[in-house]
Amino acid sequence: MTKFTLTNHNIAMACREMEIFLGRSCGEKRDVEIPAQAIAIAVAINVILDFFAIAVDLFCLEAELTELAGELKMLDVDKLRKTRMDSA
Question: DSSP assignment of 29-71, as one string?
């Protein structure tokens, strides 16, 4: 098994390698040049879709909680069904 020792030379070499790696991954600028209107439209669509996704998620959560409460006998299911029949 190879034995590694931590020396100033090893630390400096590792720092230099990290600078090269980070320079390649972060430092190179590649302009995509997306128009501002396209970004504004994408943000608006994201907000609208997120609004509907949250609404559906909350509806499903409420339905799941109601179903679990009924299974755990925490709700009077017969009374709820009777109330629903009376209102229809």
Answer: -------HHHHHHHHHHHHHHHHHHHHHHHHHHHHHHHHHHHH
